[in-house]
Amino acid sequence: MTDHGRPLAFGPSRDPSAASLDQTRHLARLAEDVGLDLLAVQGPHPYQPGA
User: Fold this and answer.
1) Mean pLDDT across the stretch 26-31?
2) Contact by Cβ (8 Å): 14, 38
3) Which of 17, 19, 30, 42, CA to CA, is 20 to 30 A from 48?
4) Measured between alpha carbons, how far is 44 from 14 in angstroms, rounded to an integer?
């Protein structure tokens, strides 16, 4: 594995969707509460439904 000179970061990932904004906020708060490092949100991709 390549060493990029920084520690690994962990956290959940969500698809971007205005319809699930409340769930995303809840997940972000939960991730913060349990000490995770980040919440990733994908950018739009051609293979993503509704993109």
Assistant:
1) 95
2) no
3) 30
4) 12
